[in-house]
Structures are given as structure tokens and as C-alpha cells.
Amino acid sequence: MVSLKKYALALLLTGSVLSAAEEIDPKLTEYWTPQPDVVNAPAGGVPSDAIVLFDGTHLNEWFITRENEDGEKEARPANWVLEDGAMIVPPRKKGGPSSDITSQQAFGDIQLHLEWRAPAEVKGDSQGRGNSGIFLMNRYEVQILDCYENETYVNGMTASTYKQTPPLVNACHAPGEWQTYDIFFKAPRFTPDGKLVEKATVTVVHNGVVVQLNTPLYGPTEYRGQPSYKYHTPRQPLRIQDHNNPVAFRNIWVRELDLP
Ligand code: MG
Description:
Elements: H1 4-22, E1 51-54, E2 62-67, E3 73-77, E4 81-83, E5 86-88, E6 101-107, E7 110-117, E8 132-136, E9 140-144, E10 178-186, E11 189-190, E12 196-198, E13 201-206, E14 209-216, E15 236-240, E16 248-256
Antiparallel strand pairs: 1-16, 2-3, 2-6, 4-5, 5-16, 6-15, 7-10, 7-16, 8-9, 8-15, 10-13, 11-12, 13-14
The structure holds magnesium ion (MG).
């Protein structure tokens, strides 16, 4: 039991603290400039400050790379199949080169929206089923794979940072259905002489479900062995993987983020 005296004292003290706080002008902790830019963001549409990388009508924002007669790499027009407002990984001749597509523009910190669809006709299993991937800065892969009732190593499944971190949950739709990725990426920071000072991080929302939240990337995606960072410039293109499965894409846009 609290005595009446102690209760009265506590009331007195609390009251005096409150009145001291009330004396601070609330305006002292408000700032009004600079006002953020205005972005028009229609529901389900493309934000007004987005750079559209694929709107279903052409592949001009993307290129593929081929070796010329001298063994040098050359940019060629993207050869993906344009069909019903989507672009689809093209069939590959046996032993032929893969046709990863690379964006013409380069980016640093971004918000990226894309929609993808694994083939309705299920072929293969594990990593062989509806495999593609989005390589942030041309080297950090967020996996695209048909993991609907299809098990594989968890750090290689849909929305994993490939061979690094599994997704928090499996939010896959059935094959043949469109799926969404909303990706929030902060690029790694390097000193001018090339030392890593801050790892890249990525947040991934798959079909409206958060599956990666500020996940650190431990270096560029490696198929074999441990990843480790190598210096690169602050803006790099996006790349979408041709893994020899006819995965389709549509509605791809990116917003550049002005982070410190
Ligand atoms: Mg992949």
C-alpha cells in the first residue's frame, strides 16, 4: 500500500516535471525546409518520378552482350521475345550463349518494381524450374525461381539473395501466374581508394509480403565459394538472367533514391 503522503509527493513531482516540459516551445523541434519533391503515385500505377525500363512495347532500354570475331564483347539489341505486353527469355540453341539482358542506364540506390511469371507448363525441378534473377548493380542477385511446391536449397530459392540469405517466407504464386517484386536497394559504400565502408542492403517485398528486410549483401553473387566485395563505381546497370527457362517479365520501373 502506498501511503497517502508518498502518493501526494509523487503527484507533486510528476506535476512539476510536466509543467517544465510544457515550457519548451514545440516549434524548436520542427523544421520546414527543404520540402520533399511531390510525386504523383496513382494506385497500382507508375510513380511520376519513375524511370520506366519496360512498358510492354519495346526492348530499347536493354541490351545483350556477344563476342565479336576478335573475341571482344559487344553490345547487341536485346533478343527477348516480345509477346502480349511481356518480354520472355528466348529459346537457346544447344551450346549457344545465354542472353542475359543489361539495362542501358546505370543506377545506385533504388526502388525497383518488376513483375515476373514462371512458365505455366512445369518442367524440371529445384534450380531448373522457372529460374531467372535480377542482378542489382550487375552483380548482386535476387533470385527468381518457381518455388511453388518445389524445394531447393533455401539460400537459392525465390527471393533469396542467391547463395547468401533465404527469404523470410515462401510467398510464391502458382506457375503461370504473375508475381511482383518490390525491391529497395542501398548500394555498398567504398572509400575513394576502394575499401568497403558499408555493405549493400536489400529489402524485398514478394507479392505484397516482406521476404527480405535490410538484408546485408556479403559481396557479389558467387555460384562457387564465399562472396567478397570488390570495388566498383557507384552506378551500375541492372541485369536480368537468362537461365534457359522461358520466364516472362512486365511492368519494370525504377526510382532513384537520394540517400546520404
Ligand atoms: Mg537465378
